[in-house]
Amino acid sequence: MQRIFASAFVAASLVVAAPIVAQQANQNSAEVQAGNYALDSNHTLVRFSVVHFGISDFFGTLPGASGTLSVDPRNVASAKLDVSVPVATVSTTNKVLDAELVGDEWFDAAKFPTMRFVSTKVVKTGKSTADVTGNLTLHGVTKPVTLKATFKAGAVNPMNKAYTLGFNATGVIKRTEFGVSKYAPMVSDDTTIAITAAFEKQAK
Q: Which UniProt key words apply to this protein (predicted)?
């Protein structure tokens, strides 16, 4: 009897899991569906890193991003990106530091609650890569920044059935240029930004 129940359970599990296992993500950027997309905040993360006193790399994350993307694979240069990130969500391995980072000597989240990137130029650099230049506003200062973006894949999310695009992007900023200068240069001025993002296609 136990064997019968066990076999039935395994069979049912395979039936339920089959649609997810069968899902095939398309890594061909030329086959991306053109249209307007909204950022999937639950599957997007902004990470930053600095060199801590010249000894080691130290990382933090900024969850909760929101934004939009318009894209046409036949005209990559026409793509438009607008993403905002709440800086009060900053998280590191140190709760005391987290509280310090939202204060007025760092992000000053009370006065400048949002970091925002708005694209101004997109240049295709490879089959699945592009340089995305835009205006980054952080700590009340706006400066041009270029992100190196890589298309990961496109597919229908098997959970919510939304056609979704995935991207990775990296860039480097000098934090002192945005008025975030505490401990610089002992804690490096150069700050690396790494982003993993998912965008869900919106209905027309």
A: Signal
In the chain, beta strands by DSSP E: 35-39, 45-52, 56-62, 66-71, 80-86, 114-124, 129-138, 141-156, 163-174, 190-201
Q: Which fold has domain 26-201?
A: Lipocalin (2.40.128)
What H or E segment, with its residue span, contains residue 13?
helix 2-22
C-alpha to C-alpha distance for 71 and 203, rounded to whole angstroms: 14
Give first-to-last CA distance, the chain, whole Å. Answer: 53
Kindly indicate the confidence band of residue 56, based on its pLDDT and cuts at 50, 70 and 90: very high
CA 18 to chain centre: 29
Instruction: Tell me how crowded residue 203 is: count the other CB atoms within 10 A of its CB.
Output: 5
pLDDT confidence of residue 106:
97
Q: What average pLDDT score do residues 136-145 get? A: 98
Stated pTM of the model: 0.87
